[in-house]
Amino acid sequence: MTDPFFTRRKFLRTVILGGAIAPTVPSFVNRTFAALDGVAASAFTPATGKDNTILVVMQLAGGNDGLNTVIPYSDDAYFKARPGLAIPAAKVHRLDDRCGLHPSLENLASLLGEGQASIVQGVGYPNPNRSHFRATEIWQTASDADKNAAHGWLGRYCDAACSGEDAGAGIAIGDQLPQALRSESGKSIAIGAPQDYQFQSGMDPAPMEPDDDAGAPAGGSIDMLFGASDPDVNVADFLQRTALDAVASSTQVQDILRKAHRGADYPATDLGRRLRLVAQLIGGGMTSRVYYVSLGGFDTHANQAGAHQRQLAVFDQAVGAFCRDMKEQGNFDRVMMLTFSEFGRRVAQNASNGTDHGAAAPLFLFGGALRGGLVGEHPSLTKLHRGDLVHHTDFRSVYATLLDQWLKTPSAAVLGRSFGDLPLLRG
């Protein structure tokens, strides 16, 4: 049975955050909803200031095909499994005598050659899930496959180490806050186009979502949403504090963007614009410790070759511009970028010249503090589990390394237990 309070809460989130304060997620709103979830906070030494290290997380949404991204060009099994999709060895950007990059990844190949990028191979987790929604949730919360968590790993980091920050310790570039940044204290915000990041007066209620109560109002007053007897919410106070928090966050971001230097040239793509916005906030002195961006289009079940090539080119060009911008700013040594995708693809191509949902895959890191190069062995293409690559590195080991060594926060407190660190960083 659907919880009526949950649907009212979801409706209010849609109305207020999507209509009245588009597209921010103010800290008071997150604090309110997190409190309703009943999850306790954890407190550690605050980490504030504009000279701290920064982590930028990018999701390649849809399940990027790792085998056609980091290509085992010397393995006959690769070409046998993909007679119509395999990338010819002559076109690959060779990294060693076994693996190379897709031909679209020119900037990434250069960064790897300069020791400013790393590829962690064979990344996954036990009992992998092939549902987009659930697999993304696992990666964003760092939970086990059979467990659920209300808050994201980045949100828990903000709770643990950013207690001195106002709203904005974490920033997602987009219309919604991803679960990765959801936290008890509500220190993260989501922003879209800079010109839209400001408080907007008035409320034009959004339509109810399909899974909401059939009898719930599609519009009307806020009192109707909660009911006169609902003891959990003081509506007037909620709206007042939400508006004030949105204005404060908006003013800070707008002030930084007005002063921001244009920086490097970026491609005219959504990802290019989003990474340029991240670069402007970093260059302008925003004290946020983590940023989150996403690039979709990687669910390549049919006619994969062209679509995958285009998306990898979008990714490569935007990341190349961002790294150049960080170098021009003098911030490349204190900014780290991590990419992930909710799963890889199956080894064998399907009958539609595409690939279906798989398991293990590589992930990328970019930054001036990296050791650089390949980390771990490429998974075997013959020792498979039900047609899938078998992972050898738990993705939470990557998270743990970045928490322990980059963000200087004990990873076990954020991830729930120790996963061990990887040799990713210099020194």
Summarize it:
This protein has 427 residues and is an alpha/beta fold.
Topology readout:
Elements: H1 4-20, H2 27-37, E1 54-60, E2 70-71, H3 76-81, E3 93-94, E4 100-101, H4 106-113, E5 117-124, H5 132-141, H6 153-161, E6 170-173, E7 188-191, H7 222-226, H8 235-259, H9 270-283, E8 290-295, H10 304-329, E9 335-340, E10 361-366, E11 373-375, E12 393-394, H11 395-406, H12 411-415
Parallel strand pairs: 1-8, 1-9, 5-11, 5-12, 6-7, 6-8
Antiparallel strand pairs: 2-4, 3-4, 5-10, 9-10
Question: What number of structural domains do the residues give?
Answer: 1
CATH architecture verdict = 3-Layer(aba) Sandwich
Residue runs with pLDDT of under 50 for 5 or more positions? 1-48, 195-247
- The level 1 CATH classification is Alpha Beta
Main β-sheet, in a few words? Answer: 9 strands, mixed
Task: Enumerate how many helices there are, as a single number.
Answer: 12
Please state the overall shape, judged from the principal axes of the Cα atoms: globular
Oligomer: single chain
Structure overview:
With about 425 residues, the chain is of the alpha/beta class. Helices cover about 35% and strands about 10% of the residues. It has a single domain (about 5-415), classed as Alkaline Phosphatase, subunit A. It has helices at about 5-20, 25-35, 75-80, 105-115, 130-140, 155-160, 220-225, 235-260, 270-285, 305-330, 395-405, 410-415; strands at about 55-60, 70, 95, 100, 115-125, 170-175, 190, 290-295, 335-340, 360-365, 375, 395. Strand 3 and strand 4 (about 100) form a beta hairpin.
